[in-house]
Amino acid sequence: MHFESPQNTRRFDGLENLFNVTLNYRRDADVVLREQIMIKTEDVEDKIFPQVLDKKDKLVCWVVSNWNEQFERVKYYNELKKHINIYTFGRHFGKAVNDAEYKEILTTCKFYLSFENTAAHYDYMTEKLFNPLTFGSVPVTLGAPRYIYERFVPKDAFIHVKDFSSPQKLAEHLLSLDRNVEEYKKYFQWRKHFVVKLVNYPEEHACRACQYIRTKKDYQVFGNLNKWYWDVIKDET
């Protein structure tokens, strides 16, 4: 069971033919456990939108603690901030936030920089994407290619940095949406039919694993964990 990205995971020798069940965020794991967009049932009430629009007093926000000048997300941020004002929080900026403050930031910002700290890996996207969706901010994503994001999230629910030729062009688009409320609202249309399901850490991991091994009776073996997990995807767009 593992949920960190391959880039931030140490390789170990001797993993061949050692495990016979994988529990992971990847869609090809035996037990898939990840945040999801689910079809909304009639008894689910959207408590965030449309009220959330009334609370937005910041345009772009980012909460970050893990800082490395070599990270792609840091390089992109350093260029983007030249063209648009970004409200920054987190330990790196000397503004650590608690859970309540974090949720308030997501609620009061129009856009949130959902920048992953690793290269593109199969199906890897974290709470950096799903928390903004939950609390009413539009994610601006950097990480996997857009087509990977669209496997899990409606394509009109987020903005991908690779949709634009440069950080400056992205900034111009965000500023345009800030001036056009009706265009901005279109990024919330998915909420009419869907809702975000967050993972209940860590209880859900244990329950799903127990359920699997109790019900799955056929024999199987997982051959090469190193080869499977550390492959890097290619941008097919």
TrEMBL record:
GO terms for cellular component: Golgi cisterna membrane. It is a single-pass type II membrane protein. Keywords: Disulfide bond, Glycoprotein, Glycosyltransferase, Golgi apparatus, Lipid metabolism, Membrane, Signal-anchor, Transferase, Transmembrane, Transmembrane helix. Homodimer. It comes from the Eukaryota. This is Fucosyltransferase. SUPFAM superfamilies: UDP-Glycosyltransferase/glycogen phosphorylase (SSF53756). Its EC number is 2.4.1.-. GO terms for biological process: lipid metabolic process. It is an enzyme of class 2 (transferase). InterPro entries: Glyco_tran_10_C (IPR055270), Glyco_tran_10_N (IPR031481), Glyco_trans_10 (IPR001503), GT10-like_C_sf (IPR038577). Gene3D superfamilies: Glycosyl transferase family 10, C-terminal domain. It catalyses: an alpha-Neu5Ac-(2->3)-beta-D-Gal-(1->4)-beta-D-GlcNAc-(1->3)-beta-D-Gal-(1->4)-beta-D-GlcNAc derivative + GDP-beta-L-fucose = an alpha-Neu5Ac-(2->3)-beta-D-Gal-(1->4)-beta-D-GlcNAc-(1->3)-beta-D-Gal-(1->4)-[alpha-L-Fuc-(1->3)]-beta-D-GlcNAc derivative + GDP + H(+); alpha-N-glycoloylneuraminosyl-(2->3)-beta-D-galactosyl-(1->4)-N-acetyl-beta-D-glucosaminyl-(1->3)-beta-D-galactosyl-(1->4)-N-acetyl-beta-D-glucosaminyl-(1->3)-beta-D-galactosyl-(1->4)-beta-D-glucosyl-(1<->1')-ceramide + GDP-beta-L-fucose = alpha-N-glycoloylneuraminosyl-(2->3)-beta-D-galactosyl-(1->4)-N-acetyl-beta-D-glucosaminyl-(1->3)-beta-D-galactosyl-(1->4)-[alpha-L-fucosyl-(1->3)]-N-acetyl-beta-D-glucosaminyl-(1->3)-beta-D-galactosyl-(1->4)-beta-D-glucosyl-(1<->1')-ceramide + GDP + H(+); beta-D-Gal-(1->4)-beta-D-GlcNAc-(1->3)-beta-D-Gal-(1->4)-D-Glc + GDP-beta-L-fucose = beta-D-Gal-(1->4)-[alpha-L-Fuc-(1->3)]-beta-D-GlcNAc-(1->3)-beta-D-Gal-(1->4)-D-Glc + GDP + H(+); alpha-D-galactosyl-(1->3)-beta-D-galactosyl-(1->4)-N-acetyl-beta-D-glucosaminyl-(1->3)-beta-D-galactosyl-(1->4)-beta-D-glucosyl-(1<->1')-ceramide + GDP-beta-L-fucose = a neolactoside IV(3)-alpha-Gal,III(3)-alpha-Fuc-nLc4Cer + GDP + H(+).
